[in-house]
Design brief:
Elements: E1 44-46, E2 58-60, E3 76-78, E4 84-87, E5 93-95, H1 100-110, H2 125-133, H3 142-160, H4 170-179, H5 188-211, E6 217-225, E7 231-240, E8 246-255, H6 262-275, E9 282-287, H7 291-303, E10 310-313, H8 315-326, H9 331-346, H10 348-360, H11 376-388, H12 390-399, H13 401-404
Parallel strand pairs: 6-9, 9-10
Antiparallel strand pairs: 1-2, 3-4, 4-5, 6-7, 7-8
Helix pairs in contact: 6-7, 9-10, 9-11, 10-12
GO molecular function, one term: zinc ion binding
Protein name: BED-type domain-containing protein
Keywords: Metal-binding, Transcription, Transcription regulation, Zinc, Zinc-finger
């Protein structure tokens, strides 16, 4: 993912954005007048002054002012704690202090046609009765159904990381025609435009979230090279919230321009930090891979006298390096055991006999399939088999010598 974006102004409500979108004009902001019940009310008392019959005083309650409620609030429900509001369509939560204009933008941007729906999630039973009397208002137009289909395709494109022009492939169009001959797909240009608008909206939502963080934040960097030999860097923001819960969010995936040195990495990183206005709130930088790239980044910042960042290598990456160095002497053994496990996983007969011999030789029980990955768990399983199931493994190798080879 390589999104070249510019700076933007304004804030939008925070939340996931892949539910709906509209390119209509933003609805005018609405306003809410505080309910009189929220403010302390003082009842007017008409007391008989100087009279002995004070017990007959008449109490006349002060009439309440008429409450003006935002039209958007009926599409949100208040949480039991009274601190947040939740969208009845997508369950996105907002602070109770969020302006109703932001709620309106959420509805218009992500739930087009929300004001035309007769029933929405969380509606009361009385509304359901009204709908039963007028079922014709529930009928969805074909255009809304087609838009919903296109939104499902957008979710699919994003989840499988396919380019927008993939929707123009004949196999996909023909498959949808089999399901619904009258289905209409957006053009590839419209898919591209919608995805870009979604990305911009998500970026604004993320800026709003980061603005509300009062603590310092940590930046984690991961470097890799694509199959096209293009270097990329992912920038992830991490912090501890007010409830002492760990939070993290992906800020951006940036392409590193040639020659991929310290100045290029520094430029890409500062571009992301300035985009979200957090360049002065970073506690430290943590890198997971490509130690050389981070050292060149540090050297470039030292030259520019930017020493406000603390560099910390990832603890898991350091531990993985230690374990990998310790397993170097057993590399040949691990390779042979891994080949045996891969063959056993592909043959139910070999696996059944291996489990049978392990039970007969009392060499433990093993779950099928065995983990033959190159991760820590896989390496540990290979060592465990080589240590505990030597007799069973040798018996299987001798019996299936032709299939297992060397």
């Amino acid at each position: 993912m390589n999104s070249q974006v510019g700076s933007m102004s304004g804030k939008a409500g925070a939340g996931n954005v892949l539910d709906s979108w509209s390119f209509n004009n933003i609805e005018p902001k609405s306003f809410t007048v505080l309910d009189g019940s929220v403010l302390p009310s003082v009842d007017s008392m008409d007391m008989g002054i100087g009279s002995s019959e004070q017990g007959n005083a008449i109490t006349t309650p002060k009439p309440r002012k008429k409450t003006i409620t935002s039209v958007y609030l009926k599409y949100f429900e208040t949480a039991p704690d009274g601190k947040t509001r939740r969208c009845k369509f997508c369950r996105q939560c907002y602070s109770i202090a969020t302006a109703t204009g932001n709620l309106g933008r959420h509805l218009s941007n992500r739930h087009p046609g929300y004001d035309k729906a007769a029933v929405f999630v969380g509606s009361a039973a009385s509304e359901l009765v009204t709908v039963a009397k007028k079922p014709q208002s529930q009928a969805k137009s074909p255009q809304l159904e087609f838009d919903h289909l296109n939104w499902l395709l957008i979710r699919w494109l994003v989840s499988v990381s396919l380019p927008p022009h993939a929707v123009g492939d004949k196999w996909l169009v023909n498959s949808l025609k089999l399901i619904s001959p009258s289905s209409q797909l957006w053009s590839g240009e419209k898919f591209q435009m919608v995805i870009q608008e979604i990305y911009r909206s998500m970026r604004e939502d993320l800026r709003l979230i980061l603005d509300q963080i009062s603590s310092k934040i940590s930046i984690a960097l991961v470097f890799w090279t694509s199959y096209e030999q293009i270097p990329y860097m992912s920038v992830t923001c991490q912090w501890i919230d007010e409830n002492w819960l760990f939070q993290k969010v992906l800020l951006d995936v940036s392409r590193i321009s040639c020659p991929c040195g310290g100045p290029e990495i520094h430029h890409a990183l500062m571009k992301v930090l300035k985009l979200y206005n957090i360049e002065n709130r970073v506690l430290h930088l943590t890198y997971d891979t490509t130690e050389h790239a981070c050292h060149t980044l540090k050297d470039d910042m030292d030259i520019q006298k930017m020493n406000q960042y603390c560099y910390l290598p990832c603890a898991a990456h350091a531990l993985n390096s230690i374990v990998s160095d310790g397993l170097r002497c057993t590399k040949s053994i691990l390779s042979k055991v891994r080949e045996f496990v891969l063959q056993a996983n592909t043959s139910s007969k070999i696996m059944e006999e291996f489990v049978h011999f392990c039970h007969a030789y009392r060499e433990g029980s093993w779950k099928n399939p065995l983990d033959a990955s190159h991760r820590w768990s896989g390496n540990y399983q290979m060592l465990d088999i080589a240590h505990k199931a030597v007799k069973s493994m040798e018996t299987i190798v001798q019996k299936y010598d032709e299939e297992l080879g060397s």
